[in-house]
Amino acid sequence: MEFRHLGASGFKVPVLSFGTGTFGGKGDFFGAWGNTDVEEAKRLVDICLDAGLNMFDSADIYSDGAAESVLGGAIKGRRDRVLISTKATFRSGDDPNDVGSSRYHLLKACDAALKRLSTDYIDLFQLHGFDAMTPVEETLSTLDDLVRAGKIRYVGVSNFSGWHLMKSLAAADRHGYPRYIANQTYYSLIGRDYEWELMPLGLDQGVGAVVWSPLGWGRLTGKLRRGAALPAVSRLHKTGDMGPQVEDEYLYRVVDALDEVAAETGKSVPQIALNWLLQRPTVSTVVIGARNEEQLKQNLGAVGWDLTKEQVAKLDAASESTPAYPYWHQRGFAERNPPPV
Q1: Could you confirm whether 62 is annotated as catalytic?
Q2: Which pTM value belongs to this model?
Q3: Which CATH number do you get for residue 22?
Q4: Which of 62, 154, 187, 194 is catalytic?
């Protein structure tokens, strides 16, 4: 397993991380992802560690905290062998203050996560989304206190706009607070919006991408084909309308290109989609998920080899889309504003 620095920090993470969205299985949304219990999770953790994957990602809202609890049980007795990343910001209770990035909520959320995870520190603590109602200085000073207290070691964000992230980084520099080194972001062959603004920002400011949903919200599993019905077993039946929308023709154009590369390489469609991401600028780690051992082993096969430049170019061309303004305009002036890829 290759390890990379997370952003402009000295912290190294494996290029593949394991996402625990399938742990717990509470509620319709996360129940559609999976319902892995502690015993099953222990086996998945075993497989990950044997492959060199030692970073596990969770969040307080995954199955109402059950995912963190299952992860805590699965790593019991081997905390020193694993890296834990988790997230907070979304509503986690009925109290008016059980949401956002206020000092009140973040302190409460961090302590609750530590308890569920059965640990006394979190390696990477990320804000799950931007809170426009709380001054960034309040949020950053709280994270600074948590770092100084030894409860968290590094900080990151997720689902921020470019200006959200840059405003926060500027405030951190101004006041001497910890900088965000990670941006947990949606990025895939059928979702390349990250490249328009967040990737250049990451390159400029030293923020590493922690990629979530690298298979395009379950659409690049190799099971979707042009003219074929949705497979009987697919979380898209329940969650398809809740995630990023993709036009059919665009999706199948990418799938066709993936099939061509799969025939050339002997690799699976998911392995190719994951490997493509690992060759993109700023990507530090790609979060993979799995309902079972077979899916996990398949995804782990995305490392240890590389697509050729020609194969990358084929996938780039198939997944190309017109960016929003002002990015399409800027593309016409690459002499003074070169694209990141």
Answers
A1: yes
A2: 0.94
A3: 3.20.20.100
A4: 62
